[in-house]
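Data card: per-record layout.
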Amino acid sequence: MDSKLQVIQANSNLDEVEAKLALDLAEGDVNQALNMVEYVAKPFFTLQIKFQGEHSRKIYGLINFIADGKNGELLNLNVVTTYNREVLNIGIEVSNKAFNQTIEEIKEEGSNSYDTEIRQAFYNKLHSADIFELFTEVKKEKTRNVKAAIEEVLDGIFDKGIKVYVADNLMTKAQIQQLTELTIESNSRDEVEENEQETGLSIYLKCAPIISAVHGTKVEDLQEGDEILVKIVDTREIGAYLANLISTNGKYISTGVITQIYFNEESKRYTLMVEFGPKIYGKLLIDGEVKLALAEELLEEQENDNKPEERLSLNVDSLGPLLVLFLMLIILIIVLLQVI
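The structure for this 340-residue chain is written out next.
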């Protein structure tokens, strides 16, 4: 076992714990373990920041910070500030996608000069060594030190009253590529396919299609490059680990990109090859008339889930004025009865 761990560490940037996890998931196969590197190593991290500061008046904000910790590189920074105190009620212990979406929604209400000023402060004050230091503190779970570093960045912008709340998270390369549009040290598709044919190191997960009879798209109408929802049903340890890593909603449901479509004339059935991430694939065998759920359906469903609550909130809020009018009508009737 020790010799295998040494081989894995010598051919990757994994530490001993990560190397052991990769080897366990690969059931002792060194080559397969090396194929797990970008799904085990966590050289990236995110900071989901909520803060309040004060200049001439109190201001509140959210910051989504995504970085390559080992290389000390800031990959993405999304900032929004507002004078609305309700921002303090927004949770930061949520998925990074949900947090970033919240920032975008607040931006639609308007922006101010603090957004740009804060962005510039982060880029000017946090150099590669500083980002690496933040990464180290996140790995050590020293959130207090991370919080202090963020407060120092914001200190030059606001006169007083700075309060910072931070949620940090380590991430793998596979996870970070789902959050950003960046392609991190990726080869061309031809090079990847050629390498896979030579080494046979691709991982194939057992999966099942998500059928959507009403809003779905027929299999026969799908094309390569379309994104569909797929449920990972692989019961192996490596299957459960990867399903949890790449799932979009925590229910082993993931987005798969169709890479190849085959049609069998005899059975009249389609075979879809889908890609979940670098070197991770699944295969679906389906009738052409079946309607599959597209990835965009998941987002629409999540948005629709919030609408009933909004309508309920509006209805409850509207009861106040109606109740006052009703009471006034009763009082008027009583007065008229007394006069009569």
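Known properties of this structure: The chain has twelve helices and twelve strands. The CA atoms of residues 263 and 270 lie 5 Å apart.

See the next section for split statistics.
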